[in-house]
Amino acid sequence: MDRLNRELAVAGQLLSSNVDYLSLPEKVLQFGEGNFLRGFVDWMIHELNKNQVFNGRIVAVQPTPHGKVVPKLNAQDGLYTVALRGIQNGEVVDTREVVSSISRGINPYADWGKVLDAAADPNIEVVVSNTTESGLKYMQENFYADQSPVSFPAKLTACMFHRFQVCNGNPSMGWFIIPCELVEDNGDVLRDLVLAIAEDWKLPGRFKEWVVDHNFFCNTLVDRIVTGFPRNNPETFQEELGYEDELLTAGEPYHLFVLDGNDGIQEKLPFHKVGLHVHWGDVTPFRELKVKILNGAHTLICPAGFLSGKETVQEVMSDPNFEAFVKKGMYEEILPVLQFADGTKNEFAASVLDRFRNPFNPHHLLDISLNSIAKFKTRLLPTLVQYVEKFADIPAAIAYSLASLIYFYKSVRAEDGQFTGNCIQGEYLIRDNKEVQQFFYDTWNDSENMIVLVDKVLSNETLWDMDLLAIPGLKEAVLSHLEHIANGGIDIAAVL
């Protein structure tokens, strides 16, 4: 079977419409070439090109020394297939499309000069990144003009300084910079990192002024589940496509991109004009919607669903009682305390239920359980507090989720730094930081009864940043649920 590349795509007419995608100029410098960017921003730019409202392609820079994507990208002439599969507005979506928005990939550790050449190109006006949350961190390192720095913020600083030198500080040569890392105020964070590194490297004050005055760092929020290469059934995909594609990228049809961009970037990247789910403006409200509804509902069902014997979110949603539990938590407890128009809240909640029912992208509950205490604190605890303040009552589904979470963290064994729980599915690893796991291990083993255990857990301000015993009625609700779970297992119908 032939491998996807320019020759195959042209001969097989795999590129939609009559646009000559493969000759479009490079307009975007992108740090990162992983599944998410290829299935999200790069797919969006392909949509712009199909509608002839951007007409540019992307130079993708490998973010780490051990990356493996760039050779595959270049072997396929930047082409790859995006498979979007899921439920949207109650209907099944299952599409395939060859995306042509990437022109080439560069390994900066081998070809730093090529990265600098791209950085100096006046046609390149946009910078995109996704180097994971750990990528937006400060790392002290030396500046060498002829070799790539290690960290992404340092790479960006070096590229900006080179562009500044080549253009002699021309204000019109500033960039629109769009970080997609899941960090709050990611644009502001990245700008401050660039300035800190410029200070470390003793770069001219005029350069720092140019960074601040003539470059626009967007704060963003991204939302799409991109699972990447379908490891379970790649042969089926290849046979269906009729060609080999090592960069086949699968994801869900749902997508949301929120950018606090100004008029200039909206004009450069008019995503909203081609029917994409993009919002321009303050990111904060959309972050709250995502964290409270989507992430909150994930956390709501995770421990109870897993302890009941289910492995995925889809299995949870196929159980009528659990589906009713999710809806109760969302529509009766989370949405009533969110300060949004009913239409906005309900539309987002409906899209979340569609995503949870997606039969193509299994969300494993054990994966979602990673660092669940911190997730509960940020995703559900504020809702619980607001609900009590507004209704003077305990939200039943959230309280049950908290009780099941406490039981999920009951270790039956602690060996070599790993803490193991046990449920009807058998043993499982509890994945959290060592201090959290040790606290629950000690508390479950040292408490003479369930009342003492609940007191210790709810009063631990290190876990919750507050004393949960101060919330009227919470201790009693959690204690009652926890005793029933310990004695009879998960009975989700009890809170419906």
From TrEMBL:
<dbReference type="InterPro" id="IPR013118">
    <property type="entry name" value="Mannitol_DH_C"/>
</dbReference>
<dbReference type="InterPro" id="IPR036291">
    <property type="entry name" value="NAD(P)-bd_dom_sf"/>
</dbReference>
<dbReference type="InterPro" id="IPR013328">
    <property type="entry name" value="6PGD_dom2"/>
</dbReference>
<dbReference type="Pfam" id="PF01232">
    <property type="entry name" value="Mannitol_dh"/>
</dbReference>
<protein>
    <submittedName>
        <fullName>Tagaturonate reductase</fullName>
    </submittedName>
</protein>
<dbReference type="InterPro" id="IPR013131">
    <property type="entry name" value="Mannitol_DH_N"/>
</dbReference>
<keyword id="KW-0520">NAD</keyword>
<feature type="domain" description="Mannitol dehydrogenase N-terminal">
    <location>
        <begin position="27"/>
        <end position="264"/>
    </location>
</feature>
<dbReference type="InterPro" id="IPR008927">
    <property type="entry name" value="6-PGluconate_DH-like_C_sf"/>
</dbReference>
<feature type="domain" description="Mannitol dehydrogenase C-terminal">
    <location>
        <begin position="282"/>
        <end position="485"/>
    </location>
</feature>
<dbReference type="Pfam" id="PF08125">
    <property type="entry name" value="Mannitol_dh_C"/>
</dbReference>
<keyword id="KW-0560">Oxidoreductase</keyword>
